[in-house]
Design brief:
- The protein is an alpha/beta fold.
- It has one domain: Rossmann fold, CATH 3.40.50.
- Helices cover about 30% and strands about 25% of the residues.
- The chain has seven helices and eleven strands.
- Strands 1, 2, 3, 4, 5, 6, 7, 8, 9, 10 and 11 form an eleven-stranded mixed sheet that branches.
- The chain is globular, with a radius of gyration of 18 Å.
């Protein structure tokens, strides 16, 4: 059986988790520049896991400054087929409490500054984002969270804002009116790029606070967010470990591995040779 590799994008200390063996640090360059940090590769039971600190070691990169393309392309270079995004989020619902986990199925994108495709520069592709996460992986991720005694809300909508500022109260209430469930700043671009890279993608959000819409919240408190986040790191690590055991036992039968079929509409004869070379790992099988 071919080796299975799960990519995990999260906090800078996330790879310090129990059970992770043979950890090595890997520096990569990509056609899109340097990723946020070195990757950390190790084994977790029967599965290989590759971790990347989204904001860099010490949390030094703003959400708008993250090189999302390099981060996802690097995961593809390292052989990942599955990608889990671990991030904090504010709750937009009374019933989603701080300290709980959410595995969203949908996204609303309110960002404006971030490159969100590997294409352009002479190659046009239009991939479907109707269902932006892998239903199989999201279901397994929710199951893994429940198996380690976490309260998991499966489904719902993740509202992605530009940041780095938190929302105004008017914005927070607007997003509630749009039926969004959690709010954060990073997963939307990762979802778009993971689809173009034909990775199975799912999001594990750690709810740290009620956004400022809530009557109990004077304003979003970064100190409280960090406190709840630190308290939930072990919960998230245990969820990823359990997910690795689930993934090890099943074959990849979803459509994510062929998401780009029919998406490239540029005549291969006019695609610049440099572009073909640089993103060959993504498109070669469709240009032959």
């Amino acid at each position: 059986m071919a080796r299975k590799i799960i990519g995990v994008i999260g906090g800078s200390g996330f790879y310090n988790m129990p059970g992770l063996d043979r950890v090595e640090q890997i520096e990569l360059d990509t056609p899109f520049g340097k990723p946020s940090d070195p990757y950390f590769h190790g084994r977790l039971g029967e599965v290989e896991v590759v971790f990347l600190a989204r904001h860099g070691k010490g949390h030094r990169i703003l959400p708008s400054e993250i090189n999302y393309r390099a981060n996802i392309f690097g995961m593809k270079q390292l052989g990942a087929e599955y990608l889990i995004s671990v991030s904090t989020a504010g709750s937009l619902r009374d019933e989603i409490h701080p300290g709980e986990l959410v595995v969203p199925y949908q996204f609303i994108d309110r960002t404006i500054k971030r490159p969100a495709t590997f294409f352009g520069n002479g190659m046009v592709a239009h991939v479907s984002m109707a269902d932006p996460v892998c239903a199989h992986l999201a279901r397994d991720l929710a199951t893994a969270g429940r198996s380690v005694d976490s309260t998991v809300h499966e489904g719902g909508t993740y509202l992605c804002i530009e940041g780095p500022q938190f929302s105004t109260r008017a914005e927070s209430n607007l997003y509630r009116a749009w039926s969004a469930d959690v709010i954060s700043m990073t997963a939307m671009q990762e979802a778009r790029l993971a689809r173009e890279a034909e990775l199975c993608y799912a999001v594990l959000t750690l709810v740290t606070d009620y956004d400022c819409w809530h009557a109990s919240v004077a304003a979003v408190d970064i100190g409280e967010i960090l406190r709840v986040m630190r308290a939930n790191v072990q919960k998230a690590q245990a969820t990823v470990a359990r997910l690795a055991a689930i993934v090890a036992r099943r074959e990849r039968t979803c459509a994510c591995g062929n998401a780009m079929a029919g998406a490239i509409i540029t005549d291969p004869a006019v695609i610049p040779a440099k572009m073909k070379r640089e993103i060959a790992i993504l498109v070669d099988k469709y240009l032959k």
